[in-house]
Design a protein that fits this description.
Blueprint: H1 18-36, E1 48-53, H2 59-70, E2 74-78, H3 89-99, E3 102-106, H4 110-120, E4 124-126, H5 134-146, E5 156-160, H6 166-177, E6 181-185, H7 194-207, E7 210-214, E8 225-228, H8 240-247, H9 254-260, E9 266-269, H10 280-289, H11 298-301, H12 308-327
Parallel strand pairs: 1-2, 1-3, 3-4, 5-6, 5-8, 6-7, 8-9
The structure holds phosphoric acid mono(formamide)ester and norvaline.
Phosphoric acid mono(formamide)ester is lined by residues 57-60, 128, 136, 270-271.
């Protein structure tokens, strides 16, 4: 494949062609295999990256840092900067572009990540915004590829829950790009944005994908992946009551898994997940609303077909692929 992503930002999967996405997934597979064999790369030697987080993170921050160090680069975690307070985003982007070879941003507005790319002059990677979580979707697809013998074009990828959040949006886009069956199961109030659905349906005409959006739980029939995410995303913490009301019948539990009728099904979740009471927030929800588990039952979360920790590890390999492809000096060790 004659693909060159040098100098490109990774803001949304919309900007990437199906072949470019396949290229990143193949590169991630190779980098993962190399690391397993103890072969560390040096594609980011002499490169500096900066990580900006307006929202909290475990996986994304650690993946960017470890991936960078694995490839010989240096990472700065920028907390407490002047950006947006004493210095405009434009000026900050111009400054960071003088110091760094790449910028990761996680935060609220998609416009922020786009403006950073516009003004910094270096590749910017979206580590999650209210609208998209594109590096997550790469890890999700890599995990599916590792767990199926079927071509992706024959796979049904079902997302159950808040069908209009950043994770659902990115899954719908990547499945549409790769010619897969994307199935979003959620109450009508939480269906994907109509423009995004139209975009994915248009794309599906050329890629052979299929897009289903349904409020019926029976729509999970034949799924290869059952996926869910938190009912309340970062920045929406005032919405627990209404989301629990809307989503209480959409928990991924054993009954829902059985509805899929696929012995080879895998369960995925981007994490963090509310599957027990071992978190402060989970406990607060239990005390207020009496729920011990939310989007996924503990039973499903811990089942052998749950691949959530492989998926979490794959954040490292896919994020590494994005950085190596866009700012790396060499792509392979
Ligand atoms: N899945 C994910 O983005 O995890 P973090 O919020 O821990 O980065
Ligand atoms: N939809 C979630 C994803 C967390 C990784 C959120 O935005 O909080």
């Amino acid at each position: 494949m004659d693909i060159n992503l040098k100098g490109r930002s990774f803001l949304t999967l919309k900007d990437y062609t199906p072949d470019e996405i396949r290229y990143l997934l193949d590169l991630a597979r190779t980098l993962k295999e190399n690391k397993r064999q103890g072969k560390m790369g040096n594609s980011l030697k002499g490169k500096n990256i900066v990580l900006i987080f307006e929202k909290t993170s475990t996986r994304t921050r650690c993946a960017f840092e470890t991936a960078c160090y694995d490839e010989g680069g240096h990472a700065t975690f920028l907390s407490n900067s002047q950006m947006g307070k004493k210095e405009s985003l434009e000026d900050t982007a111009k400054v960071l572009g003088r110091f760094y070879d790449g910028i990761e941003f996680r935060g609220f507005s998609q416009k922020t990540v786009e403006d950073l790319a516009l003004h910094s002059g270096v590749p910017v990677w979206n580590g999650l915004t209210d609208l998209y979580h594109p590096t997550q979707a790469l890890a999700d697809l890599l995990t599916l590829m590792e767990n199926t013998d079927k071509p992706l074009s024959e796979c049904k990828f079902t997302y159950v829950g808040d069908g209009r959040n950043n994770v659902a949006n990115s899954i719908m886009i990547i499945c549409a790009k790769l010619g897969m069956h994307a199935c979003i199961v959620s109450p009508k109030e939480l269906w994907p944005d109509k423009d995004l659905q139209n975009y994915c349906e248009d794309l599906a005409k050329s890629t052979g994908a299929k897009i289903t959006v349904s409020h019926e739980l029976d729509a999970v029939l034949g799924s290869d992946v059952l996926y869910t995410d938190v009912w309340v995303s970062m920045g929406e913490e005032d919405k627990f009551k209404e989301r629990i009301e809307l989503l209480k019948d959409y928990q991924v539990n054993k009954a829902l898994v059985e509805k899929a009728q696929n012995p080879n099904l895998i369960f995925l979740h981007c994490l963090p997940a509310f599957h027990d009471l071992n978190t402060a927030m989970g406990l607060e929800v239990y005390e207020k609303y009496g729920l011990k588990e939310m989007e996924v039952s503990d039973e499903v979360f811990r089942a052998p077909y749950s691949k959530v920790f492989d998926q979490a590890e794959n954040r490292l390999h896919t994020i590494k692929a994005v950085m190596v492809a866009t700012i790396g000096s060499r792509e392979m060790v």
